[in-house]
Design brief:
The chain has 645 residues and is mainly α. It is 38% helix and 6% strand. Strands 1-5 form a two-stranded antiparallel ribbon. α8 (227-240) packs parallel to α17 (473-487) and α17 runs antiparallel to α18 (490-503).
Length: 645
């Protein structure tokens, strides 16, 4: 009940904040330019204003995964995956498909179409989230009668929100403008602040947050930022600043002393939505990722959950099956040997057969992104063995879906009831293998769609709103493994990775690990939870700081990652689209360049900063290494009240 109480209170708080915090303002603050910081001074006179702003910040976190509105064909986190080693854009019907990243990703073109990717969205929305946090830090002293402990709790949560967003910016965009307050007047003379300076600031802030924010066990509400979440973010800050021992210390506390534990057996509610057409053998991985189980008290693995329920005005529709599932019902792309298409029909259709209800079983996907061959196959080999008992890749339980598990479902088809096949007698039966033929983690992307469930004649099952993990303890083990690897503690790193694998009931455990094994385990465990590109960028930086080699024998310089990085080497070795230089869709070839590890600073942000000059990243038009930037975060903060006029 605590979870529901928080969720409802969040909804009411959002309406308050919208009226109080941004009264008289337009949605211009969403636009990706420095003007997004130009807001009238806002004042607080009651604690409810702080609560309202925190509610906005909490809800805003969910928008990174699902977007700000109901989206049919795009969710923001997909961009993080299509610019990584394990996925690419799958929109083969779009002439502007974002495949040719090496040439297309520029400060003015390609990056700023939210129907293609969410790079512009991340820039604008991340700074909007920073503004929510800054409203608290800027005006908390205006609220009377706050005791010091309460004030510190608010500040600690604000630091979490700001630090999380700056950590993302630092590894998506590299050096960026630093804004730590609600500005009193328009500022058009921003200078970029170096990543190293920003990382130093947010690390110090998170050290305070870990001290000030209470443990979940001391809180009445589930979904509000807690000490465990602050500690997890601090671990990432320590990894990003090369403080391996401190990262290990914080991970030890989170794993051993904070009341969390991995879930190792099935628990909670067994949600088996389609037992006739897609039977599930109950297992811990399936239960762990059922939305109904994510925020319950029995789930000791959840560090921070983002509550997101249907039938409320704060609902965010992830459209998970729509966006991440294969486009199996595209008639011209996938046919039976008899020439018949698969049917997406409602339960009232005469051709409907419950045991062959593909739509109800897996949803009607359109594959806005699709996993690479590596993500479907090579990733799952450990010790040279395809680990078939790994519950995260296990089809026998129903967790992992393969196209061959689907059955031809048109009763008039000569092959009715038989399993799908990619080819027949040497003839390819799928004309769009990018979008319509791949395997995927069904346990991760299946979410009940309330419209589909309530409409017997519906032929479209997209996926609805659902609680989503922000941080889980499984990631903590992998973060600790990473820190141990950088220190050369290979036995300890191996043990941490194996703990995660043992929970997944893997038959293959590591005898020793390298950084590639750790990053691979992140891909297996944290699909659609971690920000894949951002984390690979962060790991590339941490690996360079450590001086340790990657699995290919390469070492890196943290100052030249735009020329070569671990992120890029993983693209070259594992992403069979970007590394082949021959896969073409609508005259656009899948390509990726080393400098794409960092996204371009939007040109409209640079242009709007008319009394100063922002630094552009290497490899993009406008890059100028002579542009001055703040290398001390205190100097950047001191300059925030300067207008340059």
């Amino acid at each position: 009940m605590k979870k529901i109480k928080f969720y409802i209170s969040t909804l009411s708080a959002i309406s308050i904040a919208s009226a109080v915090l941004y009264s008289g303002c337009t949605t211009d603050f969403l636009k990706p330019d420095p003007l997004s910081f130009y807001e009238p001074e806002t004042t607080f006179s009651t604690r409810s204003g702080l609560d309202a702003t925190l509610a906005l910040a909490d809800r805003h976190l969910r928008t990174y995964w699902g977007g700000t509105t109901t989206r049919d064909a795009w969710v923001p986190i997909s961009t993080e995956y299509m610019l990584s080693d394990i996925a690419v854009s799958g929109k083969t019907d779009a002439g502007n498909i974002f495949a040719d990243v090496a040439t297309r990703l520029t400060p003015t073109d390609g990056a700023y179409d939210n129907n293609v990717n969410s790079i512009a969205y991340f820039w604008g929305q991340t700074y909007a989230g920073i503004k929510h946090a800054n409203a608290i830090t800027s005006f908390i002293d205006n609220v009377p009668d706050l005791d010091e402990t309460t004030k510190q709790e608010y500040l600690g949560r604000a630091y979490f929100h700001r630090s999380f967003r700056y950590l993302a910016l630092c590894f998506q965009y590299n050096d960026v403008p630093l804004v730590t307050k609600i500005l009193r007047f328009p500022k058009r003379n921003f200078k970029t602040t170096s990543r190293e300076a920003i990382l130093e600031m947010i690390t110090a802030d998170m050290e305070k947050a870990v001290e000030w924010v209470p443990d979940q066990s001391q809180m009445d509400l589930i979904g509000l930022v807690n000490k465990g979440a602050c500690r997890q973010l601090l671990i990432k800050c320590y990894l990003a600043t090369g403080q391996w021992d401190k990262a290990i210390e914080q991970a030890n506390i989170l794993i051993n002393q904070s009341g969390y534990a991995l879930m190792t057996d099935h628990f909670g509610t067994f949600d088996n939505p389609n037992p006739i057409s897609w039977p599930i053998t109950r297992n811990v991985i399936w239960d762990l990722h059922r939305p109904v189980n994510k925020a319950i008290a029995a789930n000791t693995e959840a560090i921070l959950v983002m509550p997101n329920r249907e039938a409320t005005d704060a609902t965010i529709q992830y459209k998970s099956m729509r966006n991440w599932g294969p486009m199996w019902n595209q008639g011209t792309a996938l046919k039976s040997p008899d020439g018949k298409s698969l049917l997406a029909v409602g339960k009232t259709d005469p051709k409907y057969r419950a045991e062959y209800d593909i739509n109800g079983a897996i949803g009607r996907g359109i594959a806005t992104i699709r996993p690479t061959h590596f993500a479907q196959h090579g990733l799952w080999y450990v010790n040279g063995v395809d680990d078939e008992t790994d519950l995260r890749h296990n089809s026998a339980t129903g967790n992992w879906a393969r196209m061959e598990m689907l059955k031809y479902n048109d009763p008039t088809d000569a092959y009715f009831g038989e399993n799908l096949r990619l080819e027949h007698n040497g003839t390819l039966l799928c004309t769009d293998t990018i979008r319509s033929w791949f395997n995927w983690p069904h346990y991760k992307i299946y979410i009940d769609d309330p419209v589909f469930l309530a409409t017997p004649n519906s032929n479209r099952n997209d996926g609805g709103a659902a609680d989503w993990y922000f941080y889980r303890l499984a990631e903590t083990y992998l973060l600790r493994a990473e820190a141990h690897f950088y220190k050369g503690n290979i036995a300890e790193a191996t043990a941490d990775v194996n703990v995660v694998r043992e929970r997944a009931q893997c038959s293959q455990l590591y005898t020793t690990v390298n950084i590639g094994d750790i990053v691979n385990e992140r891909a297996r465990e944290l699909y659609m939870e971690e920000w894949r590109h951002m984390e690979l960028s962060r790991i590339s930086y941490s690996l360079a700081l450590s001086g340790k080699p990657d699995e290919f024998g390469n070492t890196y310089d943290e100052n030249t990652l735009s020329e070569n990085s671990y992120w890029y080497q993983r693209i070259q070795h594992y992403n069979d689209y970007y590394n082949k230089d021959k896969v073409t869709v609508r005259n656009r070839k899948y390509t990726m360049a080393p400098h794409n590890i960092y996204w371009p600073i939007p040109q409209n942000a640079i242009n709007a900063n008319i009394l100063g000059k922002l630094s552009q990243n290497p490899g993009y038009d406008g890059y100028d290494p002579s542009v001055e930037m703040w290398t001390n975060w205190q100097d950047a903060v001191a300059d925030e009240d300067s207008s340059g006029e």
